[in-house]
Write a structure and sequence with these properties.
single chain, 237 residues, mainly beta, five-stranded mixed β-sheet
Amino acid sequence: MGYLDKTSITVDAILTKKGRELLARNDGSFEITQFALGDSEIDYTLFNENHPNGTQYSAEAIENMPLIEAIPDGGNMMQSKLITLARGTSAIPYIQVANQTGIELAQGAVQSIKPRTFNINGNNQAGTESRGYRFTIVDNRLREYVQATGASAKSNSRAAARRRNTAQPTVNQQTINTISNTATAETVVGRTFTIQSTTNNALFSTELPSLTTSLIIEGINTGARITIPFTVNSTTT
């Protein structure tokens, strides 16, 4: 979402596909419980301490930048979320994974990731965040399933929910394994993330032997965030 102008607090909000689905149910399941703020669209290199009209005009170029339209795509928006850190914090938390440069898998292969956050609590402490991480794959067509374990979360496996025919309980494992023909982002929450690349040959061709999307990892405690490429290579000839 974005503020349309500076004279009134009018918010332009665009729902994601999942949001529109929940709203259409008209059963109370559409409920906004959290929101995040970010400044990914701001170019801070425009800040000019040597402005000819004085330092009070240093941010003039930034303040007059046009606001972009809301985009419901986590791969292109909210790359720089605003976070609140404890008073006295001297270092910004950041995330590292073993596959820092990206994940590249053949069709049907499985890969697990266990992130570590550095500068937890604003010091040199490193470890796993107690509330876990949000793992978002931007194009869910490239996975056979995704799973997160190690943090309390509700299962998103619609197939499992249909088998139980009950409300989904709070569990320590979150799995999504329903197949999608439309490229949409999906998120699981946990401390360890496992993904199996797609086995769908229809996505590939001789001219398109591999496909790449993004995997976004965000620490729930600290707000630290990292984005790495996820590539699937066709195994067909």
